[in-house]
Structures are given as structure tokens and as C-alpha cells.
């Protein structure tokens, strides 16, 4: 059972010593991690390093959602899984890996497909949500559920040599719908299975998602005033670019002043494509 | 000055529509071709790209006289919503990025 | 035994499928990884993700140098090690983790302290070297050995919330001595044991070291003309900054036109501090 | 203009010498205090910081009239070796970063 504590125990003090001596973090920061819960949706290329570093770094409670099983073609980038966990549900495989490093981390695997019927009740149990998924419908679902539940959403994505990172619905900033009120035409959307991806690319974005989540639960983002969008390309110079992002939009359908989306909708219909569509896109974009 | 040089970059997969070339230097008239009394706006750049740099799949870039959903436009590293969007008046050496939002993971 | 191959086998085609369909990488790029060898010096906070992603991503031969044993205080950031490998040599522990993901990767652990007597002969056996160490003396040692052996050096470092990344001695660019001809005063140097580090920070830099090494062996840096230095701070905006770096210096003592360093020297004496100094620095800088 | 405003940033641990503040706006005379016929140079900025912003541990920043070994200086995101180093003539709104090289891992 996950219970909040008033102080770190001796084992935690030994384990997290290098973080405890950080002046801007310290035992207070570590205790905040210990008492926080983070839901990672997707234990694939983004989720793998995110889960590893969140679990190893001292987050008290981790939820991991993935309905998929480990396949040999995942292992080049989903480094939390192993040859011996092939065929195992990815959320369970990820839990085993966290426990090998830090058995005291409370991990709950959810071997389910997230949808409008189950997302909100799940998200309400966590402090921060990581979007480490691979399709547009789930991205809108997670966004709306996080707005309705009042949770920050750390969103990462990767394809080919490119990656993107944004924190939504945090510190008065925009939500995913503020930036993308209309979903992209389905024929312009490619996932990593179809478009390919260099394994380290989602690795870089996933580990940065862990960093953003740690900063949020440790209270390191409290003075943050502007909101940014990080663009990454592994083969380009500069590799990283930070973009100043618009604020929350007054007329946003879900987080605006007069929201019309007050409960979760049918996201497959809204996006014209679902979470499990495996057919190749018409155009590789 | 009668021409502007704009540094255009396509990213996140958009570059595949442009022979996989990410960076382009585009020279544009400083006045809008739609209304010669006005300075060139971002809208004019988008139409210029559509009409002069694309032969096919134009709907993967432009839809209803603006960029299609799923493309973010960045003006000198700032979200175009903070800079008047289509009405933004181009300045010489501006850097405009068209980036396709990624959904993979 | 590590032998170069002319083509990928069926197992490799299944495993690396997502990288094979990348137009800028493809089966040619994957085969280059398969036939490459990379030496990672340090299996700590930087080395952990670097080794995981290099091994999982398809590098044919990995050498791992670390004389240290796994300690509980490593696990928050050195996510390649596990509770059950506490007390085990880190190079061996890292090898076990790579083999759990990709048993066909040829890994050689070197449970030794690198010094002037052994560095050059070791480095000559590899195509690229990763500097994932934690002290100044070893950084100069690795630099000079890489220049003398003609190998690119992918150098990462991390402390507190900060990280730095540079590729030295590659494509006509500078070496570490070109940038730092004189070592810093020992009292200004801090390692992660003394100064602390947030676990994800070396994670970010280490995984970027893997990316740079992959780009080098896959031939993706051949058209690169300028050389850059990446600065990272996890709590600052922008998080990343790319700096244009000077070129190779004509008067560099080791890579210049008239080098005076033609064999490895005594780096502990040169730096005034060694690879195993554990005493706290006088000033935390 | 008789004054320059320089954006100075300390990074990689250097900020610990300056109350853990990374960004500073520094106003300097546009002429060098060492030679009033010359424009202010990077050297003048370094001395200004040493003499006006530090009370102790000055040797952790300056040694032999330049920055100590282990500090890299960046002028508008470019290594100062590419820009005349100490002789670089400061311009208004320049961004100068002093970064301590890290060795941890
Ligand atoms: Zn919104
Ligand atoms: Zn050199």
C-alpha cells in the first residue's frame, strides 16, 4: 500500500544521497518525489526511459498503462524490456525492471487500452500524467482527461530522427487543444511502426519527460512564467530548439472560459483514427 | 528594399514534402501580391510556398487558405499565435519554421 | 568472437526493423553499427544510458571500462545496474544488462583503472570512444590517447542540474586540449559524489553521447562542417544551448602541427589530482 | 550612447560565485576605463565583474588578468576564441556566458 511519509528512511537517505546534497533539491525535494504518484501512459520508446528514471529516481508511486505485449522489434529502443519478457504485457515487464532497481517503488501495471470509459477515474489517482503514447486519439483523450481532472500532462513524441516535448495544463499554460483545436487529417499521421525511428530519439524525449515530471512534483516549476515547446532533431544542428508557446486560450473547448467538453467524448470518431489502427498511412508525413 | 529574404525551415516530417530539404532561403516581394499597398504577410509566404515550391500533395500543407491542422508555425522561435498568425508582417531575415506535430512514441 | 558481416541476418532484420525503414539510415546504417566497436569509459551515470542504447541499438562490439563496484547510492541514476548487482564490478554489471536485451552484442568488460600504461592499446581496438568518466585526469588521458590513436572522442559530463556534451577529434575539429590547454585548479573541480547530481541529468547527456557515437559510426556526420558544444541545464529555460566551437588549434600540444605530446604522460601529476581522489573539494564549483 | 547593457550569464557552477544567480544585466561605460579612446572590450567586462560583483574567491574567476583555466567564455553563443577573446569589442545587448567546464559523470 502506498502511504505518504513525513521523512525519508535510512535506506532512502543512502540510496538518494547524491540528490539529497543538491542545494536546490535536497531532502525536501526527495521527500516530495517519495510522496508523489505519476501515471505513465505507454511503456514503449518514450515510456521505457521515463519509467526507468522515475522509478530509480525515487517517485513513490508509478502507474504504467500499456495493453501491448513485448515484441523483439521493440527492444532496440524500449530498453526497459528484455528478451526474456517477450510476449509479456509491457506494463508488467516495465514494472519488473523498476523493481530490479528499486523494489520499494509502488508500481501498478494497467494492461488495458485507455479509453473514455476508464481514463478519468485512473488519472484522478495520480499527481502527474506522462503521455508516452503513439496515436492522436489517445493524445486528445489524455489531454481532456487531464484538464477535467486538473492534472499536468507531460507530453512527448518521436518519429524518425525528430522528437517533441511539451508540458500541458500546468501553471496556467495551454492544453493540447489550445494548440491543436482541430485534429490532423488521418492521412498525415505516421507512427513509429510505419515511419521508423532511431532508437535513441524517443530515449532522449522520454528521459526529458521524466525530468519535467520530477520538476513538477518537486515544486521546481513554481516560478515558471512562460510555456515552451522543445523541438529535437538528432541529425541537425542545433539539435534542440525551445519555442515560446501561446498561453491558455479563452475559447478552448475544454480548458477555456466556457468549455463545451465537460466529459470525455469519442476520440476515435473525433480523430478519424484510433489507438490500435495498424494500417500504413497513405502518405508518410 | 523591394525584396525580403526569409529563412524557411520545414521540420517534423514537413521536409519530406520538399525533397527532404529542411532549410530554404526564399526571396519574396516586400509588398503583398494580394494588395500592393500592404507589406508582405505570412499569408503571402504560405501561398508562395504552395504555388512555387510544391507540385503535388499541396493539401498536406495548406487547407482553407491556412496551414492544415497538425502544423505549427514558428516565427523567430515564437508560436505564431503570439504574432498575429497569417497577418504577421514579414521582416527581412525572419526565420519561419513549419513543423508537423509528431504523434509517435 | 567479433567478426564483421556483409549483411544483416534475419534476426537482426526483425529486431532493428524500425531503424531499417528510416530513409536516412536504412539497412546500410544498421550494418555499419553491426560492424562497429565502441569503447565506453565509465559505467556510471553517463555510461549507464549510453551503454544501454548502444547495446540495444545494434552496435556490434562494446568495450566497457570501470574499476568501481555497484553501490546502492549509484542506483538512482546508473539505471543499468540493479539491486542484485550491488558489489559487482560495474563493467560486468553493465554487460549483463546489455545481454538481457541483446545477447548477440559482443561486450567486453574491463574492470580496470585506465591509465597511461593501458589506455592506448585498449583504445586502438575500438572505432569510437565515449568519455563517461568523472575526473579531469582521465579526461586528459582519454583525449591524448584518442588523438594518438586517431579515434573520435564523445565526451559528456554532468553535475547538479548541469550537463555538457562535445565531440572531440572528429572531422578536423578540436581536441579537448585545444579547448582546455591548461587543466583547471584542482580546488575548482567537483565530482557528482561531492556536488550531487539529479539522476536524470547524466541520463540526458549519456543518451546523447550514444546518439553522437551512432551518428559517427553510421556515417551521418560526414558532411558536418562546424563543431559544437551542447550546454544543458535541467531547471533553466532554454534547457539546451548549442555553442559554435573553435576549430583545431595549430599550436595544440597533442593534435597541433608540431605536437610535443607524442606518448601518454602522467595525468595525475599534470592535473594535480587523480582518478580516485575522493576527498571533498575546498570550494564547491 | 555612453553606456552598454550586457547580458551576462554564469553557468556550470559559476553562478555559485554570484549568489546562485545565473542571469545578470550589467551596465558598462561604452569606452574602456583602461584607455578612454578605445571602445569597451571583453577584458573590461571581466574586470568589472571581478571588482564590482565579487567580494571573495576572485581567484576562482580571474587568474593572471584573464578567466582561470576551466572557464569557457561564449560571446553570443560562439566560443570567444572565434571572436578575439579579451580584445573583443563589446556591443550593446551582447550576451556573454561564463561557463565552468564540468567533469562529473
Ligand atoms: Zn485548452
Ligand atoms: Zn588539440
From TrEMBL, chains B, D:
Transmembrane segments: none annotated. GO terms for cellular component: cytosol. Its main location: cytoplasm. C-terminal thiocarboxylation occurs in 2 steps, it is first acyl-adenylated (-COAMP) via the hesA/moeB/thiF part of UBA4, then thiocarboxylated (-COSH) via the rhodanese domain of UBA4. Pfam families: Urm1. One of its GO terms (biological process) is tRNA thio-modification. It is found in: Cytoplasm. Coiled coil: none annotated. InterPro entries: Beta-grasp_dom_sf, Mopterin_synth/thiamin_S_b, Urm1. CDD domains: Ubl_Urm1. The modification 1-thioglycine is found at residue 105. Keywords: Cytoplasm, Isopeptide bond, tRNA processing, Ubl conjugation pathway. Pathway: tRNA modification; 5-methoxycarbonylmethyl-2-thiouridine-tRNA biosynthesis. It comes from the Eukaryota. There is a cross-link at residue 105 (Glycyl lysine isopeptide (Gly-Lys) (interchain with K-? in acceptor proteins)). Belongs to the URM1 family. Acts as a sulfur carrier required for 2-thiolation of mcm(5)S(2)U at tRNA wobble positions of cytosolic tRNA(Lys), tRNA(Glu) and tRNA(Gln). Serves as sulfur donor in tRNA 2-thiolation reaction by being thiocarboxylated (-COSH) at its C-terminus by the MOCS3 homolog UBA4. The sulfur is then transferred to tRNA to form 2-thiolation of mcm(5)S(2)U. Prior mcm(5) tRNA modification by the elongator complex is required for 2-thiolation. Also acts as a ubiquitin-like protein (UBL) that is covalently conjugated via an isopeptide bond to lysine residues of target proteins such as AHP1. This is Ubiquitin-related modifier 1. It comes from Circinella minor.
